[in-house]
Amino acid sequence: MKIVVFGGDGFCGWPTSLHLSDLGHDIHIVDNLSRRKIDCDLGVNSLTPIRSIFDRISCWNELTGKNITFSNLDVANSFEKVLDIFTELSPDAIVHFAEQRAAPYSMKSAATKNYTVNNNISATHNILNAICLVKPDCHVVHLGTMGVYGYGTAGIDIPEGYLEVNVAGSTENQTTEILYPTNPGSIYHLTKSMDQLLFAFYAKNNNLRITDLHQGIVWGVETKQTLKDERLINRFDYDGDYGTVLNRFLMQAAIGYPLTVHGSGGQTRAFIHISDTVKCIELAVSSPPKEGERVKIMNQMTETHTVKSLAELVSSKTGAEISYLKNPRKEADENELNVNNASLISLGLNPTLLSDVLADEILDTVKKYADRCNTSLIPCNSKW
Ligand SMILES: NC(=O)c1ccc[n+]([C@@H]2O[C@H](COP(=O)([O-])OP(=O)(O)OC[C@H]3O[C@@H](n4cnc5c(N)ncnc54)[C@H](O)[C@@H]3O)[C@@H](O)[C@H]2O)c1
């Protein structure tokens, strides 16, 4: 297939582009490199020494003979150029990662709130709008987040996007299915909730074929393809804005920094390994909804853990101290989380669960680049 990967220079997008290219798909990356620019603005760097997108692509070509092409393009602010991409490439499918993805960054200031809303909503809308005009049979695969559901599960398993409800009709009760009511905990999560409505509208009104993957927190760093050469290495965020919890703990343990648990650590979250992320996208791309079908929503996660249990696991393996800090976020101190992830499992996902071997792999990577870490950037300074 001809596949355009929007946001293909990022943490999930780069290994996904390599994985899909390795499978024989024809990959074009669109990215405005804004994530690298935000690193400069924040004075932080990926712990791993990521190469430029041009070096990455030429290394892949040198190793495999496969050609990935690239456009430096702001999807949120250049509608005409987005149209050109669809006209010139006529893709069978697109994968849409091109959004500002950190909750703490989105809550940092009035300017980052505005940026996150404008960037994420316009990027999604420009892509859908262009597809309608130029390539209406193109399958859209979007990365959403488990965070749209919120973290209060009312004692049920979180379903895959739709909730069966029983409502009182004028003569009798009616059973129907609605989009699971969203309960975003940050401006970032709010934009993902708004994306859902854009998708529902375009699937209903224009018969677009759309898959929305509600992903858990991604951990790990390397995939089979990124391990082929150091020039293909994936990004590893550890700072208080972009670093995600399990990767942060592993990195903190590796440099002897007490593990930063926010609050009591009773927050339960969903997780997925980066190798499973790329596999799920392969599965989603090859299993599109039919024209006229509602948006296909799948929960892209493999396990749940409390933050405290993750810290204890990392501590028991490495001897790291745990420090319980005041929670900078407005969120419940404790929650349960049960999630239905049957769709991707039935399509063939074989989960990579958090095991000692994998944690070792990450610890080795982190130790190798530990001297690149600026410890002053570890605390989370964005508060809400
Ligand atoms: N990383 C996670 O743990 C996680 C968890 C759940 C969902 N997701 C979702 O997966 C997607 C990818 O996440 P990630 O961790 O790879 O993020 P990332 O920030 O590493 O990658 C996003 C990429 O999109 C690009 N981008 C952003 N706005 C753009 C625009 N207007 N035009 C062109 N390119 C643009 C950035 O430069 C970056 O390369 C996001 O949408 C995120 O919400 C990520």
Topology (SSEs and partners):
Layout: E1 2-6, H1 13-22, E2 26-31, H2 34-42, H3 53-64, E3 69-72, H4 79-89, E4 93-96, H5 103-106, H6 110-134, E5 139-145, E6 162-168, E7 173-179, H7 187-206, E8 210-215, E9 217-219, H8 245-255, E10 259-262, E11 268-273, H9 274-285, E12 296-300, E13 303-306, H10 307-318, E14 322-325, H11 342-347, H12 356-368
Helix pairs in contact: 1-9, 4-6, 6-7, 8-10, 8-12
Bound molecules: nicotinamide-adenine-dinucleotide.
Nicotinamide-adenine-dinucleotide binds next to helix 2, helix 6, strand 5 and strand 9.
Give an account of the 3D structure:
The protein has 384 residues and is an alpha/beta fold. It has one domain (2-236, 274-300, 340-350): 3-Layer(aba) Sandwich (Rossmann fold), CATH 3.40.50.720. The chain has helices at 13-22, 34-42, 53-64, 79-89, 103-106, 110-134, 187-206, 245-255, 274-285, 307-318, 342-347, 356-368, and strands at 2-6, 26-31, 69-72, 93-96, 139-145, 162-168, 173-179, 210-215, 217-219, 259-262, 268-273, 296-300, 303-306, 322-325. The radius of gyration is 20 Å and the shape is globular. The model has no long low-confidence stretch (mean pLDDT 96). Bound molecules: nicotinamide-adenine-dinucleotide. Nicotinamide-adenine-dinucleotide is lined by residues 7, 9-13, 31-35, 74-76, 97-99, 101, 119, 123, 143, 145, 215, 217-218, 235, 244.
Q: Which short descriptors sum up this protein?
A:
384 residues, alpha/beta, Rossmann fold, seven-stranded parallel sheet, three-stranded mixed sheet, 12 helices, 14 strands, 38% helix, binds nicotinamide-adenine-dinucleotide
